[in-house]
Amino acid sequence: xxxxxxxxxxxxxxxxxxxxxxxxxxxxxxxxxxxxxxxxxxxxxxxxxxxxxxxxxxxxxxxxxxxxxxxxxxxxxxxxxxxxxxxxxxxxxxxxxxxxxxxxxxxxxxxxxxxxxxxxxxxxxxxxxxxxxxxxxxxxxxxxxxxxxxxxxxxxxxxxxxxxxxxxxxxxxxxxxxxxxxxxxxxxxxxxxxxxxxxxxxxxxxxxxxxxxxxxxxxxxxxxxxxxxxxxxxxxxxxxxxxxxxxxxxxxxxxxxxxxxxxxxxxxxxxxxxxxxxxxxxxxxxxxxxxxxxxxxxxxxxxxxxxxxxxxxxxxxxxxxxxxxxxxxxxxxxxxxxxxxxxxxxxxxxxxxxxxxxxxxxxxxxxxxxxxxxxxxxxxxxxxxxxxxxxxxxxxxxxxxxxxxxxxxxxxxxxxxxxxxxxxxxxxxxxxxxxxxxxxxxxxxxxxxxxxxxxxxxxxxxxxxxxxxxxxxxxxxxxx
Length: 480
Description:
By secondary structure, the protein is α/β, with parallel strands linked by helices. It has 20 helices and 20 strands. A hairpin with a 6-residue loop joins strand 15 and strand 16. The N terminus and C terminus are likely disordered.
C-alpha cells in the first residue's frame, strides 16, 4: 500500500497548496516543546515555541495562530488563568491543554470553558497529530472551487465541527475518566457506538475489554445465558461452560446497543445485576463480582418509552448518569465536510491511491437530508471512491455521478445545468442562459409556482421575472 501524504489537504483548482498554519507551544519543558514542534512541522505546520507565559504573550502578538498548546503549570504563572486572559483578549486560536495525569479534572473544566482538547503526559506523537488535524479543519474551511484531498488517516477520535459535535466531544472528555454510566440517544446511523468506543478509549478502563450487545437480537429464552453465561448441563444444549457478556467485559466496558428493544425480562435481569454488582451463571450457585462500566444507546425517544411503561424507569435512572444526544446529520450540515475528508483519507489509504472531492460537490451534499445519517454518507463516499475515474497519476476525483443512485435521485431538484457547475465539469459547462433558466425553474418549484415568492427568492423584481418567463416560456410556467 502506498503511503499517503502526511499534510493537510485543501488545494485550489490549479493545485496550489494553501499557506501553512501556525501553532504555538507554551511549555517550560524543552523536550515537550521539541516533540510537539517536530510533529507539527511533519504535518506541514509552522510551530513557534515559548518557555513561559511572558514569552508567549510576546509571540502571540507577532502573528495569528490557529492552535496553541498550553501547559497548565508554568514557572511564571498558571495556564488556566492565562487561558482565560487569551479568551478575554479575543484570541481565536484553538487551545489544547497540556497536563499531568493528576490535573485531569482541571483540564476537563477548561474543556467546558472553551478549550478544544488536552494532552495528558506522557502523550504520543499520534496524540499531537490528532489535535493538529482537528485544529486544521476548524482553521481552514475550504472554499468553493477547491478540492478536498486526503490527510493522514486518523483511526480514533470523533469527526465534526458543529456546535452539537463539539459539545459531545467536550462531554466525552469530561466524563470518560469518571466511570459514570452513559446513555446515548440519536437516530440510527449517527455513530452511537463510535461515541461509546471513544468514552471507553479515553477512560481508565481503556486497556480492558469493550464488549457490545445488540439488544434487539437477544432471544427472550436466552437472556440470562447471554448476560450471565451458564455452566455445562444447565439446560438442554448446554454442552460446555459459557462466559456471559457481563463477565467477559470484566474490568472494561459493556455497550448495550438499542437497549429499548428487549422484553421486560431482559430489563429486570440487567437491573438486578447492576444493583447487586454480582452475577451468577445459569446453573451455578457461585456468585461473581461485577466490575464493568455500562454504556447504553437507543434510537427511540427514551423519555417517551419510560412514560409509556415500555422501559423501566428505575433501569433508566441507573443507566442515565450522563445523557449524550447525537442529532441527525441533516441538523448539522457543517459536519459533512470534515466527515467526507475523514472518509476519503481512509479510502485513499485502503485503495493505495489518492482520492479527492470538490468542495462544490460537498455544498450539494450538505443540502441532502441523509436519512441514514453518517452511515449513509460513509457508504456514499466508499462507493464513490471505488468507482470514480482516475487521472494520469492514478488519482481519483469524486463527482456527483459517482454517488449511489438513490442519493442522485434525491438530489434531482438540482437541474442538470446546476450539477455541471457544482461539480466543476468543464466539458459540460452550460450557457449562462441555461443556468438562469434552471434557477428560475427551481425557484418556481420551491414556491409552488407563486411568481411573487419566486421573484423574492431570486432577488429580482416580480416584473423582471414575468418578463423573463414571457421571453423563454411563453405560454405560462406557473401561476401567481
